[in-house]
Structures are given as structure tokens and as C-alpha cells.
Amino acid sequence: MSTTRGSGLRRVPDLLREDVIGGFLLIGGAIIALVWANSPLGGSYEELRTFPLGPESLHLRLSVQDWAADGLLAVFFFIVGNELKQEFVHGDLRNPRRAVLPIIAALCGMVVPALIYVAFNATRPETLHGWGIPMATDIAFAVAILAVVGRYLPPALRTFLLTLAIVDDLGAIIVIAVFYTDHLSMAALAGAIALLAVFGYLQRGRGAAAVLDRSPVPNWVVYVPLAVLIWVLMHASGVHATIAGVAMGMLMRTTPIGREAKSPSHRVEHLLRPWSAGVVLPIFALMSAGVVFAGVGSVFTDSAGLGVIVGLLAGKLVGILGGSWVTTRLTSAELNPSLSWIDVAGMSILAGIGFTVSLLIAELSFDDPGTLAHAKAGVLIASLIATVLAACILTVRSAHYRRHGYSELPTSSGGDLG
């Protein structure tokens, strides 16, 4: 009996490395959050996610929600950045003609939603400041939905979404830093960049890597404190701290050297992915998705709420799909031949899931409680509609690919490289 139980427990990490399992856990956390926040116990939910934790002396006295969105989610972003690095070095994104397409699509998918919001609010200066709300895609939710409904879709679609969402998030962070942040600490940002250079040197410098590998002290004794310090400085700078995770992921070495059986990139991803899927994402969803349905009835009569909904739904579709199509017609950029434009359309609608960053920008945009409630409700409504529409399209496309003999979408597009 104990042997069987032990064997079952050893299978848990392998199960959590499957994106489908992580997707279900994240979606489950989001559903619990929505039900809890809108139930008679909603007050306890709000008390929990606003409960402060951390040392005040280091300016890290953050709410539980902030620790989940800024701290824990940095682990997920590290894995995404690491996976993209594998794609750029070994995978589909080695081809510049394919790599440039999701980057341009992301930029178009930010500009068009912002323009749509401005069009809806051009005559209302008091709500115009919310133009940044529909720009952002929530990468965690989008990847989770894709994993659940698109098991037989070509891996290139997941790579397209990851690249697009990372560029989208970087753009949204720049927008927040420039237009929605009162104070940006250049000293802290410079310190974070300097330590990222050290992190990169330890990865890329063959001498440094060899010394660490031969050292009797485990590598994590060096890398974990360094990573935490980079995160702390990035957070102190005023830039969204998850960017530290992306940057470190992109700096990982993806090619083995010496007697290494696997590169650090693959070893760390193998270690962290179960923690990301089983702990990080469910807690993030539980603490971030609990939007109260207040103001839903009147959101369609308010230009702020309506601008957010149309921006996230129509703006993302027109921006990403239209921008991609025009780019392939006017430049040498190309769509991966395993994909069709209907796949990109489904993914473009999926990118209309706003949630975390959109809600953050809404908080920074409005002081009026009524307008803020309408904007948040707009994000929630658009995200739910985007999820349903994209799920319908991508489920049909997944069934199409399955009928034509395509294999199941892998957990990680770079997991078997190197």
C-alpha cells in the first residue's frame, strides 16, 4: 500500500508538467474566486487578498494579491521567458521571418484596442485616461485556455501566443511606467539591470559556468539569492516585477557544455514547471480573478466600460489578425505553414482576456468609484466573452487537426530540445 501511494505521489510532478492540468487548476481557482467574491462571504475574500504581508523597511509590505501577481507570478514568467529562449535558439523562432510576425501582431494588438477606447471616450476627458486598459493580454489565462481546448493544435500556435503575450506585457509595462506611474526609481532599475548582466554572465560565461558546476556548493545557493535580489530591485524601481522573471528566463543557457546531460534552461524548467502549474497559477487566479459583478447592468451605457469591452474583443481581433495578415502581404514575414488564418483568428480573440494588467491599469486610471466599477466590469465581461468565443473556435480547429492525424500539443514547445 505504501509503495503504491509513494508511486502515485511521484507521478504528481509529471502530471503538473502537462499544460492541460495546470490550465484546469488555474480555471478552477478563477471560478472559486468569482463565486467567493460575489457570495455573501465576499467580504472575507476581500479581506484575505488585501491582507498585508512583508517587511515595511524594505518597502515590501504588500497585499496577498500583490504578492501573488508580482511575486509568485514571476516564476511563471520565468518559465515563459525560458521557453521562448529555447524557441529563439532551437525552435521555430530561429527564423526571423516567423519571429517578427507575433511581435508586430502584439504591437498592432495594443494600438488598435487603445484607439477604439479613445474613439468611445473622445468627448469625455474624465474617462479618456483609461485608454491603456484594453491593451493588455493576460498570458496566464490565455495559455491555460489554449492548453485546455487546443490539445491537438499545432505547437506553432502556442509559440505565437507566448511571443505575442510577452511583447504585449512588456508594452503594457512600459505604458504603465510612462503614463500611469508617478515615480520611477532609476537607481533601483539600474541595479536590477546590472545584476541581470551578472546573471547572464554566469549563464553564458563558460569559465563562470564551469566553476559553478565544479563547486561543492549547489548552484541554487548562488542563483536563488541573485534572482530574489533582482526581483526586489525591479519591484523597487516601479516597473512591474514580473519583468524580472521574463528577463532571467531569456538569459538562461539552452545548450549543454562540458559533461552536462541537459542545459540549465531545461533542468530548471523541469524543476519549476510543476510548482508553477500546481501552486503559482492557482493562487494567482484565486487572488486576482475575484471581480465583483457590481455595475454589470449599466456598463453598456457607460463609454468607459463599453470602450473596454469593444477594445478587448474587436480591437484584439482586428489588431492581431489584421496586423499579421497585412504584415505577411507587405513584408517578407511569414506565418508558420502548419497554421491557418482561422487559427490565428481564434488566438486573437483569446488575447482579449484582460484580467490582471487590465484591472491594474483601471485602478490607476480612475478615482471615481462608479467609472472604476464599470471599467472593471468591462474587463470581466470582455474576458468571459473572449474565453467562450475563442474556446468554440479553437475546439473546432483542434478537432480538425486531430481528424487529420496531428499529435497532441506538447507541454512545452521546447521541452525536447537540446
From TrEMBL:
Any one cellular-component term (Gene Ontology): plasma membrane
Coiled coil segments of this chain: none
Domain of life from the UniProt record: Bacteria
GO term, biological process aspect, one: regulation of pH
Pfam families, per the entry: Na_H_antiport_1 (PF06965)
TM region(s), chain numbering: 20-38, 58-80, 100-120, 132-153, 160-180, 186-205, 217-234, 279-300, 306-327, 339-361, 373-396
Cross-referenced InterPro entries: Na/H_antiporter_dom_sf, NhaA
Gene3D superfamilies reported in the protein's UniProt record: Na+/H+ antiporter like domain
Record keywords, A-Z: Antiport, Cell membrane, Ion transport, Membrane, Sodium, Sodium transport, Transmembrane, Transmembrane helix, Transport
Recorded topology in the membrane: Multi-pass membrane protein
Molecular-function GO terms, alphabetical: sodium:proton antiporter activity
Family classification: Belongs to the NhaA Na(+)/H(+) (TC 2.A.33) antiporter family.
Functional summary from the UniProt entry: Na(+)/H(+) antiporter that extrudes sodium in exchange for external protons.
NCBIfam families: NhaA
Name assigned to this protein: Na(+)/H(+) antiporter NhaA
The organism's taxonomic lineage, starting at the top: Bacteria, Bacillati, Actinomycetota, Actinomycetes, Streptosporangiales
